[in-house]
Inverse folding.
């Protein structure tokens, strides 16, 4: 396995890295204000809209974007397409940070965070609660992701001694690494089960909102639509990230995997769109799409983005064109994100004149979290064997 | 392309199975029945004169602070329920607002507080059982020691009842708990105790429902006896009946509530949402129970995954 990937090296304290660090520090300051003065001091969250962009973006869209590791594991380990193996590590890395930071966001968002551990106390558990399942699954999956990603650290410590701090390289991990690899299959299996559960349940979360959610989004199919779209977003982020890494770090392109992967994505988008429209039509909600209000506009934007993604990914000729794949993956990520924003915020209307638009503080905290995620990614791909070894194909 | 029709069919079949599972009646969670001795309130909008004695009494006996909507901050004048206001009287007004309890050119009052649902969405939603429905009285109560502040109850409640202290560093969810602290001592909820007209009365839900149906049968213009404070055993006032909308709101809406409403104008005008008889909690739990009954499906799936992954990782080596 280790022959597939290697650290790309180079200086990590670049200008973009410093800018990102600035964003992260500013967000940290705002988070401090939130803890001292309450959620209302930095956010526009209110009793009508108790959830805002921290939930819709950082958690719901963020974990779907972080589904790269999950989607690739499905392909490599369940469908046994071992040839995609070199793409697993970058996908897992994005997953590790996406999920870990979603968990951090939850901790910023929950009001009584000092009691958050009650989630894991059996005597408090409410098994009817979708939230309980989502929370326990996401928390467990964060651990599973770190376990799945640990072999990269073990390899890095042993092979990249000159580039890492001494306290790490002194550590003899060969024994631990052996045991780890022996039992890793169990965690890989768990790492496929957990996202299947919580990515679908993230959709189920909104079922209980009932009529507060527009019928264009409120459906018993929410779990299925959320699951399929999360898997497509997982593949899209792998394509996006690989192409971005190739250009950004001036590495050769991994086109042979990416073009085939894009083929799989188009099938999934097809199934998704058929279900999405059939569901809206069968429930008699399609008329709402022609009301020329915000909901109908968002409905068409969301689905048009899926169609744009299909437009780039469907033609066979486009699959060998990096630019087309990049745009296809980008629009697909955007489509899935807009779907999640619609289902959690934009089409959610508690009535009674309540309004919500994210505050400057909320947006800056979200940007800070994204910045931190990118910084960590940049550091790790430079220092540890994550990205596929450059090959001249 | 390696993904062929076979794989497409796999995904499509999984989708179909899930559709079928959602529709499968035997797996649906049954609707919740009313608890026999459940207690609640009957609010009759036609009797209410909008004096807000109930709002004041609620604040006094729940020790909640004043809530200001004007900048002078002289007196308590909230515009809606909030974390400091468990109970409020609101006004519907149309056109000139001249006649009481008339939809056109009229006005009507409505009292809003927790509905104490038969099948509460907040109770179903809460991950840590911080919101619970009393097994005997059916009161929906809040336990701050369990609550993690995720605010899913607020997303779930069709009436927007639970309120959160956004301005506090150590916030809580706040809502009407039917003065359970007063019930313990043999008193009735403060809003019913201090309502001078009997617009809001306390009692067993089955008695309240019978009283409500009796009133719907009265003819406008008749002189009738209306119980005050409590549905039976309390004072009685005589009153000339005014026309009712022929429905007891809360008998069926959203699976039923323990606070029932009568009114002279359509309930939706008073801000009470038109809900179907199936509760959202039932819909949500039906999906969840279908997929996760006894955790059988996830355990079977994990077993299958362990086998496949183990086999395939060996192949890769």
């Amino acid at each position: 396995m280790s022959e597939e990937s290697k650290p790309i090296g180079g200086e990590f304290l670049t200008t973009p890295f410093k800018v990102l660090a600035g964003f992260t520090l500013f967000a940290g300051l705002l988070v401090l204000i939130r803890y001292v003065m309450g959620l209302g001091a930095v956010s526009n969250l209110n009793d009508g809209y108790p959830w805002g962009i921290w939930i819709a973006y950082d958690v719901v869209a963020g974990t779907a974007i972080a589904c790269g590791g999950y989607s690739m594991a499905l392909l490599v380990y369940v469908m046994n397409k071992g040839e995609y193996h070199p793409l697993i590590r970058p996908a897992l890395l994005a997953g590790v940070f996406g999920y870990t930071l979603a968990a951090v966001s939850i901790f910023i968002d929950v009001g009584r965070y000092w009691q958050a551990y009650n989630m894991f106390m059996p005597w408090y558990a409410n098994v009817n609660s979708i939230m309980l399942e989502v929370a326990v699954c996401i928390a467990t999956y964060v651990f599973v992701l770190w376990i799945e990603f640990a072999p990269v650290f073990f390899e890095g410590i042993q092979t990249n001694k000159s580039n890492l701090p001494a306290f790490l390289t002194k550590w003899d991990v060969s024994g631990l690494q052996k045991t780890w690899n022996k039992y890793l299959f169990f965690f890989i299996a768990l790492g496929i089960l957990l996202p299947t559960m919580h990515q679908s349940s993230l959709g189920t979360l909104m079922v209980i909102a009932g009529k507060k959610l527009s019928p264009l989004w409120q459906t018993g199919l929410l779990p299925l639509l959320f699951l399929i779209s999360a898997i497509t977003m997982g593949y899209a982020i792998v394509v996006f990230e690989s192409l971005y890494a190739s250009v950004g770090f001036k590495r050769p392109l991994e086109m042979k995997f990416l073009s085939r992967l894009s083929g799989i994505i188009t099938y999934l988008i097809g199934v998704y769109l058929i279900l999405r429209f059939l569901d809206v039509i069968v429930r008699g909600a399609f008329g709402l799409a022609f009301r020329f209000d915000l909901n109908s506009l968002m409905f068409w934007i969301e689905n048009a983005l899926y169609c744009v993604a299909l437009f780039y990914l469907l033609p066979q000729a486009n699959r060998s064109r990096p630019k087309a794949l990049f745009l296809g993956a980008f629009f697909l990520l955007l489509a899935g994100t807009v779907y999640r924003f619609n289902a959690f915020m934009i089409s959610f209307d508690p009535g009674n004149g309540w309004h919500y638009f994210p505050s400057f503080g909320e947006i800056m905290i979200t940007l800070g979290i994204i910045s931190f995620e990118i910084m960590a990614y940049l550091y790790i791909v430079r220092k540890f064997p994550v990205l596929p070894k450059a090959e001249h194909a | 392309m390696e993904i062929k029709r076979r794989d497409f069919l796999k995904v499509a079949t999984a989708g179909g199975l899930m559709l079928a599972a959602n529709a499968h009646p035997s797996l649906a969670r049954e609707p919740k029945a009313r608890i026999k001795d459940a207690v609640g309130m009957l609010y009759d909008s036609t009797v209410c004169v909008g004096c807000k004695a109930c709002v004041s009494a609620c604040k006094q006996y729940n020790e909640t602070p004043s809530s200001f909507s004007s900048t002078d901050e002289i007196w308590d004048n909230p515009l809606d329920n909030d974390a400091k206001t468990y109970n409020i009287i609101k006004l519907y007004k149309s056109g000139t607002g001249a006649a009481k309890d008339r939809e056109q050119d009229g006005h009507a009052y409505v009292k809003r507080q927790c509905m104490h649902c038969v099948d509460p969405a907040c109770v179903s939603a809460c991950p840590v059982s911080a919101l619970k429905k009393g097994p005997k009285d059916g009161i929906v109560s809040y336990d701050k020691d369990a609550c993690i502040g995720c605010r899913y109850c607020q997303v779930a409640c069709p009436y927007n009842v639970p309120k959160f202290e956004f301005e506090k560093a150590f916030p809580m969810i706040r809502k009407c708990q039917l003065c359970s602290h007063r019930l313990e001592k043999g008193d009735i909820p403060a809003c019913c105790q201090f309502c001078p007209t009997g617009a809001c009365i306390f009692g067993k839900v089955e008695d309240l429902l019978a009283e409500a149906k009796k009133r719907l049968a009265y003819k406008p213009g008749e002189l009738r006896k209306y119980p005050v404070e409590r549905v039976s055993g309390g004072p009685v006032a005589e009153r000339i009946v005014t026309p009712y909308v022929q429905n007891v709101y809360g008998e069926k809406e959203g699976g039923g509530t323990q606070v029932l409403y009568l009114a002279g104008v359509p309930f939706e005008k008073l801000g009470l949402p038109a809900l179907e008889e199936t509760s959202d909690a039932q819909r949500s739990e039906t999906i969840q129970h279908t997929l996760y009954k006894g955790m059988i499906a996830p355990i079977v799936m994990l077993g299958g995954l362990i086998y496949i992954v183990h086999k395939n990782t060996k192949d890769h080596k």
